[in-house]
Every structure is written in structure tokens, then in C-alpha cells.
Amino acid sequence: MRKICIFDAQILTLIPNIIITDMKNISIGIDIGGTNTVIGAVADDATIIAEASLSTQKYVVLDDYINALVSNIKDILAKCGEHTLRGIGVGVPNGNFYSGAIEMAPNLPWKGKVMLADLLRRHFDTKVVVTNDAKAATIGEMVYGGAKGMKNFVMITLGTGLGSGVVVNGSLVYGADGFAGEFGHSVAIPGGRECGCGRQGCLETYASATGIKRTAFELMAKYNTPSKMRDIPFSKLTSKDIYIFATEGDALALKAFDFTADILGRKLADLCTVLSPEAVFIFGGLANAKELIVDATKKYMEQYMLPVFRNKVKVLPSALLGTNIAVLGSAALVA
Amino acid sequence: MRKICIFDAQILTLIPNIIITDMKNISIGIDIGGTNTVIGAVADDATIIAEASLSTQKYVVLDDYINALVSNIKDILAKCGEHTLRGIGVGVPNGNFYSGAIEMAPNLPWKGKVMLADLLRRHFDTKVVVTNDAKAATIGEMVYGGAKGMKNFVMITLGTGLGSGVVVNGSLVYGADGFAGEFGHSVAIPGGRECGCGRQGCLETYASATGIKRTAFELMAKYNTPSKMRDIPFSKLTSKDIYIFATEGDALALKAFDFTADILGRKLADLCTVLSPEAVFIFGGLANAKELIVDATKKYMEQYMLPVFRNKVKVLPSALLGTNIAVLGSAALVA
What we know:
The structure is a homodimer of 335-residue chains. Helix content of chain A is 33%, strand content 19%. By secondary structure, chain A is an alpha/beta fold. Chain A has two domains: 11-138 and 325-332, ATPase, nucleotide binding domain (Nucleotidyltransferase, domain 5, 2-Layer Sandwich); 148-317, Nucleotidyltransferase, domain 5. Chain A has a five-stranded mixed beta sheet with strand order 3-2-1-4-7. In chain A, strand 2 (36-42) and strand 3 (48-55) form a beta hairpin. Chain A is globular. Chains A and B meet through strand 9 and helix 7 of A and strand 9 and helix 7 of B.
């Protein structure tokens, strides 16, 4: 509830005992990624009032992670001044909207089923809603971004893995069990690269920040072309490095981007045959490489497209690049 | 409008001038397949009152086909006695719900855009609704079949090609342009078999009546195993022959079914990652081979499935096998 007081300041001197309250509504949005967790306190007008982040990878023991998360949320809320807490929304890989649990997430340190909503409710007497991190981003794009007013679109988030959210007839697709939208685990190359999910050849082992790095190392092995990447070990090379080298004209770095766009474009053409979306939005660090990823993916998608869908489906960078769309989307779950 | 009269027959003798009318409502359902077109006059209780069929392949000239179709519809209506015509529903490959047209259907004789609804309206002063043949079957399964009450399911029709319909959140997915659900043209093997759509490796070139025949010929070429199929030319062998040989223990025919189920199971596992359906229904002649297709597809689908979806998704033969589900579903479009 937001109390709005409009008055002339001088009135205060006439009624000295009045108490003015302009209680802010705060929604906590949490984006748990394979590498980092970002927490934001979001006001009703979608501004992020306070923010914090912690390493996800560092906390191998679940209890330690929950304690660190709770402590960060409390710190952030303390910075918000007087407020009403609407709730806590969490976007997390394999987060289940129906159960509030994280179930068998391949890129997170904790195995099995983590009852995240229940664990957070022990510390906060408020509504807690959990969903897939990419679904949170999809809601963010739909509410605040480029997908406003679209009834059928696909959201792709390129991070450590490849997340996705699908909107059909204006509604987010959760599917029968809440886990729909795992496009990153559709198989791009049968028998291909080992994936954290225990299978092989999943799209996200090719089209993601880690995927493009694996591609770069394959290319260094296959070709003799000189490249600055040859001086950096596997454990150190980042997708950002590859991007910088590509913009400098490094032929292998450019080839790594081209291969990534090719495989993503091919799988998107496949997805279009089933869903016929109006647009595909791409989010994540790699999406900043607009020509090398977004435009190149569109080019390949059109090459592979079933004739009836050609030149119909837009491929666009998220309109919320540079913002923490997953934090906004997560907060929107409880706002 | 259906007028129900319940009375003792003797009353008629007391009121000799009474006129009893029980005007039937008739919906025409048309299923246009690559090989045949089936037309049914369907009553409100889903019984098919009259039926006819004509060869689709035979009519290379569109006008000749339309004339034959119109003539068949008129013949059927003449057999229905006094009735009110609700409309004509058509299920046809690449049929567009929004425009009423057939657009670039790879398995039909007529190229380009065929304004089917407009052409039929020239002959019948009634509502004409066109959709994909597989979408019509999906509506049939949802209204009359095994998918009653399901909110998320996938329908697969194995005929000359592979058709599909997708239901999400209780609604059929048409997508942005009306053509969603072309799962048969998702690519199973990049660079694989030539497809009628102009591309290569589409799922329907493997998992369909024609696909299993192509597989049988590949296997005859690859292995020396004896088989009755070796005495039948390509132009004569049917999927029904392969089924009969398989039930007789023909090793190559069995292998052809196994390969078909493997590739279909793999692509369905892929689709489940995105949609998380409650069930997959399989319709078409091949679905009568329950163990060899339906059960085998389920087995392979589970093998390829992302762990989070394992043992959750049913694979079932259509509950309407043996009926003309596409005719019923098409009729349901206007009923």
C-alpha cells in the first residue's frame, strides 16, 4: 500500500504533530546464475533502489549459500529505509514455479532438490516465488522490454549456459511440470560435447559463454591460423576476451562467433517450425556483440528456415541489455 | 438447432395434422492428405453420417481438384436428408487458420498459395474454416479422444509426412502467423534426406510412412540380412508391408521400425525440453504398430530425455485410432 501525501510544506508548521509516511513498496528480485547471484530491491516503478551480489560458485555447501543470501537480502532491505516488503522473487536455473524448488540444476553447486522457497520463508515472513532465471528474464522483457504487446515470442539468455523462455498466446509456457523452456538442453549435435546435465551435444555446450570458449579451443586445435587466444589457457579465456579479439580482426575469434551463430540459428529455425514466434530476443553478455551474434544468428536462422517461415521472425537484442533484466523479472513475480 | 420430440406414438393418431421436424445439423469435415482427401458429414453427436474420398495426388490441376471436391461434398449432403449446414471445416497440410489458404505445402500437387476457403465459399453459402490437418486431428483428440482435460500435450500424425499439433495452457498453438506446429520439418539429421520442403534431413523424411520405407531401402543397402522386402521395388513397398514383415520376424523390417522409433524418440525428447507436455499422442497408420512404434518411441525418448523430464511424459496411441480423427476435428472447427 502506498500512501501519497501532497501538501504545502508550510502546513507542517501549522500542524506540528503530523507524521508523514511515504512508505515504499519493495520487491526483492534475485537472479541466481551459475557464476554469480545478484540481488536487487525494486520499487513499484521498476527502479532498482539497492543491489548486491555474491559468488554462487564459492558456496559449495547449501547452508552457507543460504546464510550469505539471507544476510545480503537483510543488508539491502536495511538500505531501503522505511518500506513494505511485497515479497521475494527468485530466478534460478531449474527453478520450479509450482514447487518453489531448484531441481537437479546442472550448473549449480548443489545437487538434487533444493527447497529454496521454503528455506527463504524461514527467514522472511513474506511471499516467495521461484522460477527459472530465463523465465524471469522473459517476464522482464514482456513487462519492461522489447516484447511489450507481443503474444508469441522466444527469449534466449546467453550466460554460463543457455536459458530460454517461451511465450505462447500471451502466456509464459510452464508446461505440465513447470520446467518448460529448457531449449539450451535440446540437442544440437548428437554425441557432441559433454554437458553438465549428464548428456552430450546440448545446444548450451555450443551457444553460451562457455560454449564459445570450447569452440575457440576446438578451432585452435583444428587450424594453424595465428591467434592471440593461443597465449591464454582454457581456465583463463573468457567470452569477453574472444569478443575483443574478434573486434580486432582475430580470424579464429571471428570464426568462433560465426560457428556459435550458425548452430544457434539452426536450432532457432527448428524451434520456429513448432512455435512460429513473432520475435526471438537475445540477452546476456554475448548479445552485446550485436553483429557477431544477433545479426549473424538471424542470417543463419533464415538460411535454415522452413520456406513458410522465412523473413517473418525477428531476431533482436533484448531491449533491456545493460540492465539486470533477471532481477527486474524476478521482482515482477511478486510485485 | 435440434428439436427434440418425446411422445407416445399413439398421440399421432389423435392429432393427425401434426408435422414432426427433427432437422439435423451437419458439419462437413474435410481431411486433405498428400495421398487422399476424405470428406465426412458429421452430426452434432460426432457420428459420421456420410463419407466419401477422392485421390489428392490425381488432381495436378487445382481447378479439377476443387470441382471434384465440390461435387463430392454435394453428393454427401444429398445423402444426409433434410438438414441445416453448420459449415465446412478443412484440415490440410500448411492450411492457415488466419487466411484460409494453403501456403507452399510440400506434399500437395499445387504450388504457391491456394485460397481454399474463398474457393469453397464460391460454391457453398456457409462458414468455411481451414487449418493444418494435424491441428484438426489435435482438436479431435482434445474434444473426443485421449487428451480430454489435458492442458499441455503434443499430437503427432504419421502419414505421408509427419504432422503435429501443440496444445499449451489448454489452447492450440497457431503462432504469430498461423503455421506453428510444423514439427515434421524440424531437422533430425543435418544434411540428411531430401525433403519435399526443399531442405534436407527433416524429421518427416525419417518418421512417417514414406520415411520408414526410405529407411528400409537404406538398411537393405547396408546389410546382407535376408528380407522379403528385397523382392519389392521402391515404388511398391508400403509401410503396411514393412509392418506385416516385422510382425513375421523379418529382421530388417524390425530394424526399420527400431530406427524410426529411435529418431522420433530423440526429437520428441528435444521437444519436451521446450514444452514439457503431459503426453504425446501418436496417430496414423503406423501408430497401429503399438509396440514397434508407440512403445519403442517412448523407450528411446526416455533414453534421450533431459533428467528433469524423465518418466513424466506419456507416449500414447491416439484414442481415436480407427476413426477419421482429422475429419472429426475439421468438422469440430465449424460445429
